[in-house]
């Protein structure tokens, strides 16, 4: 099944599908709508402490990521045991899509319904990505993995960008067709949720499991299947942890990845609400900048994938982290919409590159026969960063009173992650993975 065009098409189409959700809902419309309409201008008071929309948003992102952080390795191990990556992928996908659809009914003042539904949608999104990522070593050979990973991100940027453009068109034409800006935003969120669920049907059709399920050990056969799988998943998690202890270079990469992805994930999830609440930019500026990032991100994902073929994935990834460091310094001093657009160009270029190269590099240094199990660890480190990054951003904003300090603080993640990445011996990591296969 390696390098099969239909398999690859089905795989990249899931990126096309779910990127509409992350672009329109997580990054663009919902944070702006949350800050501008759902949460009162002065924030809300809980237990005598007032929390701004930015702080609430960061805490919500952290909570949903923490949930997946706890369960991801077990889900990955269960998936490997039952050969059910596709089933898990679609279960999380449609749970998240349904929750995102229900966000349409959240209006001004509906703070807690919005937080709960968005958390469920986020859990569905990031949970599905565990199993989506785990298909990569099964559909692409090592020499094609960087390109296929980049192709997935590129298709995601195009699909997410197109759906986002439709949502922006609806918002721009809202007054002419009798729709308020708030209602237009809610319809845009609903469109993104339906796009996610609808286009995922293509992946459901083309993606095939390439491994048969294993037979349950005798000591688990008396249990209900779901409980047996959980028990086996926990045992496999322990085994995987012991395995990972033998993969020193893999662990070093994962630690580096978790640290620098702190910065990347936080920029993705907090950029719009930073521009809305801190910089006071209009929705038009924020939405156009995000639309730019989508299509420039496609160029970045494919461009850095090609660069990786010339100078190696690790060296290309190092370049992206250097650019990210300059991006957050620039953002700290940013004042005008034109500067925001300039920053968006560089974010688009390195966003797709850093994400696709990290995924493909990891896929090249893990044992292929336990892909979902090890991608569960990948997700743990990924979602660990999505806990700490937005949480740090929210706390710095809460205690210093300005999100500019929060954005500048992200440089620590990029520099420290870069330093650790320099010490990763990719060749040794690949040799260890082959020895375990």
TrEMBL record:
Membrane-spanning intervals of the chain: 20-39, 51-76, 88-107, 114-135, 147-173, 185-207, 223-239, 251-273, 285-304, 316-334, 340-362, 374-395, 407-424
Main location: membrane
GO molecular function, one term: transmembrane transporter activity
Family matches, as PROSITE patterns: MFS
InterPro entries: Atg22-like, ATG22/LtaA_families, MFS_dom, MFS_trans_sf
UniProt-listed PANTHER family: AUTOPHAGY-RELATED PROTEIN 22
UniProt protein name: MFS transporter
